[in-house]
Amino acid sequence: MRSSTYASTPKALSELNQSRIVQYLHQQGTSSRAQMARDLDLTPAAVGKLVARLMSLGLISETGSMDSEGGRRSIGLALNADRYQVIGVKFARSLVSIGLFDISGRLLDSEELPPVDPGNIPGAVADVRTRVARRLEANPAIVAVGMAVPGPYLRESGRIALVTSMPGWRSVDFIHEFGQAFRVPTFIEQDARAGALAQSLFDPRVSASSMAYFLVGEGVGLGVIDRGALVDGSQGAATEIGHVSIDLNGLPCECGNRGCLECYCSAVAIHRRMCQPDVRNHFPGVEAMTHAKACASLFDRARSGQQAAQTLVDQIADYVGYGCVTIVNAYNPAQIVIGDMVAAAGNRLLEQVRSIVSQRALPGLREHTQILLSRLPIDATLTGAAAVAANQFLEHPASMGRTAVKSTSTRRAHHPSSGKEHHDQ
Amino acid sequence: MRSSTYASTPKALSELNQSRIVQYLHQQGTSSRAQMARDLDLTPAAVGKLVARLMSLGLISETGSMDSEGGRRSIGLALNADRYQVIGVKFARSLVSIGLFDISGRLLDSEELPPVDPGNIPGAVADVRTRVARRLEANPAIVAVGMAVPGPYLRESGRIALVTSMPGWRSVDFIHEFGQAFRVPTFIEQDARAGALAQSLFDPRVSASSMAYFLVGEGVGLGVIDRGALVDGSQGAATEIGHVSIDLNGLPCECGNRGCLECYCSAVAIHRRMCQPDVRNHFPGVEAMTHAKACASLFDRARSGQQAAQTLVDQIADYVGYGCVTIVNAYNPAQIVIGDMVAAAGNRLLEQVRSIVSQRALPGLREHTQILLSRLPIDATLTGAAAVAANQFLEHPASMGRTAVKSTSTRRAHHPSSGKEHHDQ
């Protein structure tokens, strides 16, 4: 039996000071403590303490004295980001990818698994386990694994409550499968929440206190940061925008509802639409494509001027726009970042989304909501999975049994949004 | 010019320890410090400190020694709740009510203003100012005023972004009108958020960490408490459920969107529906009624078995149910409390709402969401307005210029969700 002692965590994201210092040094190169305090809006005392902790991990080194403004000299600090590495795993529906990152979130290498056979989900799970274990065996620098899974992910039971189009994922108990699988701790987070974390940490345009990451890919998901912390819900399953209905009499969804947003603008829905008799002759071979390939080819055709493709992209953008209207009115974020597969439609989609929001979202709010496309070089969810692991290590190195001098043998499944560890017995 | 220094407040609700002690003594009568610490899950040291602060305000007195379990004797504490009083004001669309409460949230008396003339909103504002000032003049025990206004309320500008059916409210600058009007500070909060605060403080059934208050009255609003704090939004205007669309091709709403929930189940929408040719002969005189009277008569008729009324109540309940489905999937609260005018439809409505949720909300989440009707003896929003004022006083008595020995002359408009005061210049 597992104990279920997940505390709610108002500070889940507001305590990321060590992560922010790592990000800051990653972006700046070298800096002094004083400069860092000014730029990060921290007190010199706080910076001193955080730097000391990071130095004890060997993550920061002093680089000797450097000039600073006012003619005074101070000690430069630099990051040894590759000293610790993390693995990120993104589970989508048919797509699973694994990436190796340094602790600052820089991708070192990645691999994509063969498309998941809906009839053999356990095979995909075993494959992930084998590949991650192989990487861990070969690479002692890896200190944690982060996994991003489609929502609604139920934190306490380790299960996904529902996965449209590939229900087999529901039978996977992620805590059971991965909690004790590796020599390093594993952290599991819902995909769009991991993506929100990645956006707020790794894109300097993006607010750390109020933003929404709108994942439009094989599924449709959302992670919302409000007052510096993820909107959580009693089961960790809040912000399931993919299953907020936009049409009470609309398409029936596998969740039991009708008109769920996910039925209209997910990559699965787009692929399905492309296969319909009235349009499929514009997309030769579409039936045999993967969802990802179908979307990519649609966006390519739209960009090269094909009328039918452009019309379809505009229709998709309308639905992404209705989703953004709901996000503005329901969460009032300062920013919405649209990412994942469908964001690859680019500016044509973005402009149409902005137009829908300016027509339909609440006046007084819509003018204050910035809508952006993700600019992370790597998939936000995969980066987010790594960010979840990196942050847990940076903020709680000791609780992970890992310090500069001691290597870990922790065998617990962790949940990043929980303040406490998950104990298997 | 005003400065706009509203900080976000992750601790807005998590810091209500003094309020909770007041509530506890209000409900328990007499208690010892040790008992209080156990029941409120606080450390004895924390309780000692909180009690000392409340004693210095004259709000708690020691009542002499009392028996406690184990045969030991301890000192009893009791509340002097009427020592400090607060005024709550509820602004709906056509309805404005004012209540005088003691600091524990007990209603002492209340008055309802004459229905607001849409053509003379400034007159209604002046009337509120006069009535509140008169009460303050006559009653030196009053230490704060709380006001609850329809959302979307823009915290920094002091304005309501949109008020369907009575646009005149948009022209009111609440900070300007009330910020300097009284000898005590005035706090302004969106109505459903104030209601959420009241529910979590005053109804022992209701969670203080994860709940949603679904206000279905002249307007439709929502306040969500997640991880112990209100979901806020970048402008303090999150959770505008009344303008989340349930039908992208539905009724046009004054906000610019189509199919907004508010178009289907607000008291205004219900009244409009009752006046339509196909049903109005079942409701004689309905055109001349106020929205409140029309709803009350509809619910009475349904309870007394009138078929047409029951059919209409069931249709309304469907829409309230679709709203709850969105709330479950968008916020995953442990509880939804339905309140205000339309909740008076009672169990018939509640059962239908639960049925819709069990069909349509996400499996895995819906089974864990309790749906309740408000049980507060007084309107939750009016009580909430008072609770906002009482909490501000209890948690920050010094910053309000009021202590046990010093009376206040603070003339600033305060926002309860902001950690900082609002400075007019």
From TrEMBL, chains A, B:
Protein origin, superkingdom: Bacteria
Write down the Pfam families for this protein, in alphabetical order: ROK
Positions of the UniProt region annotated as Disordered: 399-425
Annotated family: Belongs to the ROK (NagC/XylR) family.
Name it. ROK family transcriptional regulator
Write down the species: Bifidobacterium apousia
